Amino acid sequence: MSFVFLNAILWPLAALAAVPLLLHLFARSKPPVYRFSSVEFILRIVRTTLRVKRPQDWLLLLLRTALVVTLVLLFLRPLYFASRALAGPLGRKNVVVIVDATGSMGCNEGGRTRFATACAEASEVLAGLTSADRANVVWLDAEPDAVFPEMGVNMGYLRAALSRAELRPQTGDIAGALRLAVSMLENQDGRREICLVSDFQRAAWEKASLAVPDSIRLVNLCVAQGDGENGALTDLVVDPPAPLKGEEVTIHAEVANYSARPRQQTVFLELGEGRYNQDLMIPPWEKAGVSFRHRFRQPGIHTATVSLNEDRFTADDRRWAVIQVADSLSVGVSGTNTAEGRFWLRALGALSWVSAEPIDPARLPKEAAYDAVFLADGNGADADRFADMLGRGCAMVCVPSRGTPVGPLLAAAGVDASRVPAEAAWEILSGPTAARVARKEDRLFQLFAGGEYGDPAGGVFRARWRLPGDAAAAGETLIAYEDGLPALVRYRHGGLLYLWALPLDPEVSDWAARVEFVPFLGELLLSSRSARGGGATAAMPGDRLAWRVDREILASDVTLQHGAGEALPVLAQREAEGTRVVSESAADTGVYTWKYEGEAQQVTAVNFPALESDLRPIPVKEIEQQGRVALAAGRRARELRDGLPLWPYLLLAVVGWALLEGGVQVWAERT
Amino acid sequence: MGALRFKYLKPEDIRKLAGYEFAPRALVEGYLAGRHRSRARGSSIEFRDYRPYVPGDDPALVDWRVYGRTDRHYLRTYEQETDMECHVFLDSSASMGFGRAIPKLEYASFFTAALCYLVVRHNDRVSLQIFDEGIRRFFPPGSTGRHLRNLMAALEENRPGNPTSVAAALRRSFPLLKRRGTLIVVSDFFDDPAAIFAALNAYLHRGFKVHLFHVLAPEELELERRGLLHFVDLEDGRRVIAHTDSLARPYGEAMRAHIASLRELSVRRKVDYVLARTDTHYFNLFDRLTT
After folding, report:
1. What is the pLDDT, as a whole number, of residue B2?
2. To which H or E segment does residue A310 belong?
3. Of 1.10.3720.10, 3.40.470.10, 3.40.50.410, 3.40.50.150, which CATH number belongs to A93-226+615-642?
């Protein structure tokens, strides 16, 4: 703790402190003489009241002296420097100001956002630096970056950058920002400081590590002024994510109440021409959900916009979901010369919403896009291609017969391929055996739960494929034989991979002839649809959006449009199998539409990160517990660096002394 | 007497005094037959009492009718009307020199002069004693014009000075007064009331009718608010620095208590007490003395 006097030249004025004492003594020694008839009464009174008057006189003298001293100090303009403050006014300093530019900083408090306050505070810090100092500003967002590539001296430019800065509705990479700041301070002479200006939102900062080298001083400047009561849309789920035309779709919105009071919210859904709304009451600090049901009559890309009635923090009051509605599911069947291939193709043909076709894996183009592929035969040469399709979300149903590349597919599904034989053993059973549903609670069997649609595993089998035990252990056994051997196993990796050990040949099984077979196959397809529906994608703010095409195109023919606004610049990257067009970071939330030669090709929904909706800050004391300097909201970092001007307090003290002196004088007169 | 020209007894005042008659309601003992009722039984027409004859009594005073009825000698005694003696004590201590509009001593001198004139005019005798802490001057009782002129001259020559001690002056004066009468003390009474009345006890026991005229200037009654002042006592030169703003209220209370004390003791001892403010005309004081 130290003081600096800006008008130290006025120190001789301190002699004025003696004025009240001198006046006191002078006034007492030279009052006008009054010849009075008898001072007996006066002496008696003075003697009586002296015990009271003398302390009053001393008190008055003290107050008047304090008044003059405070006045003198006022003119000296003292600055107060706290011991734990930023570096003092002397010596060269290197300061990196990390400004939190994440979504929660958009909270409006006291007429301006936390981000605006943070920028103002950061600007104050920079304004306190001298020409010998070096500084930089690091933006804390999804991809932390700095204004200068290295420490600079142009404070004006940094302050201008702060004044121009815009908030990005993103989460922040705290560790990355600190790393960047520390790296900039390395090899810098003089004192090194990092000033972290943030709202210290609990959800983001609670588990964040603020570890910096000991040689660097870290000052946390909290700009949050309260809990920031907020109602937020935290999630939007479409089920099924890639519906078919006419299929009932459930759009489920999750609404959070980040406040200490119950909150009534109206949730609006805009879907094409339709607009729906539902009310819900959410308890304090709780979440609640609301569901809308809809059937799409036209295939294509649809955008669902869910919104809340706006509050002080509007960024999270709206979410978007892009829904790719398909006319039918595209299914390829390989091995139609086998019983399984033949029966699959026939059964799929009975489903009106499935477009099934036989495929030849050897002639299958690389860009072939199927929702599902049934493999009844094949050879190892195509394994990589199918693994790639699986990785892109395509469902694969494989019979572990001769030539079917089970091993590489299982490897793609996360199973150690070296432990799985390429083929399962074909086993002729001595007697017929039945199969049973092993996971009745699985969505695949939801339709059959009531019994109206029969038993989906109700066939009789005289032969079967015996899957190795290790292969089944890595997946989920959906149907098993009576003796426990797995009959249908599912693996999850990108798309779903099914190992089908149930023979359909009528000579060894009657399952394909049963009425449950076709519904079962339909349920298998519906439950295996990829969450990534073709032209509908989702991304987070700050992500680079990408669109991949299987041919060579020019970036100039591609536009990425944000809502109804202007297009974002894009860059085409040549790849072995086509072109990947990427954009800059999607800074704002909303719907981004990729257009090629004016035609919409892909739509991406960028939603506000739910993490940023809980605006409660960590108490300053908790930040301090991390062993760092932390400042409460409203305190200015400049005060720490440039010192806290004490003149307002001194002025207040002067007024206080004067009032007190007046009070004591009145009291003295009355006594 | 109308041609007299003195500082404290002006012709216009004499004319005004023509309407006043000094007749205190008290018995006096006098040498000459006069207007005033005396405790000395004498040859007047007002019967007072019987008393047994003792050798030496005038046989003419024996009531022979009573002797005829009782066969004993009784004397008839009568109330004797005699001239009055008025003893005026004028405080001339230094404190009496205080007063902005008119010094208290001047005010008291005007009153004393008029009082002496009134007494002498009715052939009564008046004595004057000018005192401070002791007896400064004493004029024995007289009723002549010459005596009055002497008193006027003494008043004119009189100057305030020395400390006050009313009690001491009263005690010293007592042997000087041969006959009882009316005792009029004109002073500012800056003395202990108990001591004053202790000294007056002797006079009261002897049958003096006592009048106390407490002469005070207005600024003594209510201290003026003049800020911080260096008070200097006119009598003993004691000094004290005090702020009149803070002093005024307790001083006023102390002065009122002092007056109340004098008044209470006066009532108890059947002494006539009058507060004489110098901002009022001294003629008003005669209302308490004249009939």
Report:
1. 45
2. none
3. 3.40.50.410
